[in-house]
Amino acid sequence: VTSSASTRSGAARQARQQVAARQRRRPPPTDEASRIASRRVEEPLMDELKLDFRPLFQCAAVYSALGIGSQFATYYTENRRKQADLIDPADADTFFDKYGPYFLTMAGFFIIEATAVEAISSMVVPSHLSALWAAAVAKLKVVLQEQLKLCRSANTLRDMKAFVVYFNDTLRSYGLDVAPLVAAQHDMRSYFVELSQRDATDEFNRIIVEDGGTPVLLRTEAEYNRLGARHALVPQKRPHLPYHAAYSALVPHVLDTVLDCVGDVRVFSADLPGVATLLWRTADQLIADLARRITAHARETPSLHSVAARVQLSCDVRHIIEVLPVVDCRVSRLAGVVGSHEALDITEEDAYAALLAGGSSNEGDLVVDEDGGFSASEAAAGAANLNSAPTLRRGKAAVALFEAQATIVGLVRDLTLGSINEFLDGALQVNWAPTGGNATDPRGYIVDVVTFLEGSLISMEPLTEPVRNSLLSAVFTRVAQFLGYLLCNEAVRTHQFDRRDESRRRSAARRAV
Amino acid sequence: VSSTTPTEGRFYQALRGVAALERALDDARVVAAPARVWSLCAPAFCQCFARVSREKSMQALNEWLEVVRRRALEVGKLALDRTARRAERERQHGPSVIDVTAATAPSDAVATP
User: Fold this and answer.
1) Residue A377 confidence class, pLDDT cut points 50, 70, 90
2) Do A411 and A310 meet the contact criterion of CB atoms below 8 Å apart?
3) CA distance A139 to chain B (A)
4) Pick among B8, B52, B83 to test the A interface (most A CBs inside 10 A)
5) pLDDT of the residue at B42
6) Is A431 helix (H, G, I), strand (E, B) or coil?
């Protein structure tokens, strides 16, 4: 009995020595170590829980003293393995009701196991804990993957990610390898980006329908400063208030949405690598998607069958193109690359100053080709070739915005020329050689045409000068050609139309023009 | 562990029996018999005591295993709560710098067998 007691006390001493030796072997303090240390400064977890490990240690000591430590190890490890296998998710609907307790139980199990194995490490095989943990991680990964597929809300995913981060941090501090679960965090982040982009896209649709079309009116200095500070959308020298901006509320709202979404992705990506690239890509995709939605809206929405509405939309797109450098700088700042080797070639202040000085580049302007069409590709290529251009202007965003602008201006031209054609078709109904006062006499018709052209001129005012000139040139050329045709055409002059053959004559008139 | 294992019961019963035998032999004035009884019984008692210790510690271990199984959720909850609180503190005040060597020493009450 004395010998057994002596051996037992020797085992206890040996365990204490092992713990002390492990402490001596610990690496110098690192950030991670400091973080772990801050955990231990609190009252030890097991002390707070009043969870007594003495029965385990006593049993280990007794079996060890009797020379049958392997029996103890086998019994203990087998029991713990079975217990680990028995941990199952509860029957519930939501992640936190069902898997919250599951993850917490897993965490508790492995915290206890890590603590126990640390003290009886001489008796259990080293692979015991790692094998248990590997099996658990495999199950946890499957659960996370399944839950990701079921998750439909960015907010829920944000909560899930925070929970998994705490889970990982906790178990990492007990020496367990959480790398596979960190990989799951990457999957969660990818899915979060997807969900956030989907939410942003829904928001774009709402903004385009609700906020587009009405130019912004800044009434107070506070409004002026807020808009200027956020998106550089106001003149540098403050004009008299109220200030009528050329763009609609769509512009600041979509830029807010883009930056908010990128900011959310930034917050979600905390502690994960590759943030800068992800933020650029997210912003680029969002703006490209925005451009496509604006184009679709301009094409498909019946309420936009007016020149003014489409011109406003084109103007909005141009303003988004112009503030891309500022958005670039905001994304850089979120990505934390400003000031590093990945920094932008220009600072936000530089971009802002260049923009407010009138713009040294022609971004936002479309190239008018020889046929009077509008080319986005050349303008986009021009922007892409700028060596100092920030990433967004080299990516899909710039190209998509230029294409959107070209499409919308093309629609404006089609609509304007279509209206002119209708007027000119109506000209065939006019008696150009009246013998008395008549409602459809040439004077009334010409007044209508002039009124229409005045309206078109005013509507096109917000367009840039080359685009506006090109459009007006096309319209006036069309009118001039038709008037010339009227003057030269004998049948028109004598008002001898054959109404039964009217459609054929209209076609002939168009061909002649 | 409050309960007594069967082996433990028999062990103490045997111990009491041998003590009674010793007293009887002593009362009967049988010369040197008590010492002889103990020398004959000692190896068996040692073996039996070892078995009692093993059974009692195993019984305690089984109860401990059941306790930790039941309390795993509680342990996990408190550990993650602590991590969350610490993360919140670090967000507000920055990470704390602590002497790792001193701070990582486990609680004696827990870690010492």
Assistant:
1) very low
2) yes
3) 17
4) B83
5) 86
6) coil
Cβ–Cβ gap A170/B100 under 8 Å: no
Which tokens sit at A271? 């502690």
Give residue-wise pLDDT tens across range B31-67: 777 777 888 888 888 888 888 888 899 999 999 999 9
Q: Would the ipTM clear 0.90, i.e. be above it?
A: no
Test the A interface: residue of B71, B96, B100 with most A CBs within 10 Å:
B100
Position B113 scores a pLDDT of 30
Hunting for tokens 């995709």 — which residue is that?
A285
Q: Could A108 and B73 be called an inter-chain contact, meaning their C-beta atoms sit closer than 8 Å?
A: yes
Between residues 191 and 250 of chain A, which touch chain B (CB distance below 8 Å)?
none
Structure tokens at A493: 């002059």
Q: Which of A315, A353, A217, A200 is nearest to A262 (CA)?
A: A200
Residue whose structure tokens are 């392997």: A70
Residue A499 gets which letter from DSSP?
Answer: G
Do the beta carbons of residue A57 and residue A51 sit within 8 Å?
no
CA quadruple A282, A283, A289, A290: dihedral, nearest 10: 150
**Residue A261 clears pLDDT 80, i.e. is over it:** yes
Disruptive mutation site among A31, A32, A35, A176 for chain B (greatest number of B CBs within 10 Å): A35
Q: What is the pTM of this model?
A: 0.66
Rounded to an integer, what distance in angstroms lies between the CA atom of residue A109 and that of residue A125? 18
Residue A88: closest CA among B66, B84, B69: B69
Interface of A with B in 85-124 (CB under 8 A): 86-87, 101, 103-109, 111-112, 115, 118-119
Query: Distances in Å between the alpha carbon of A445 and those of A426, A441, A505, A508?
Result: 9, 7, 19, 21
The answer to whether the CB atoms of A62 and B57 lie below 8 A apart is: yes
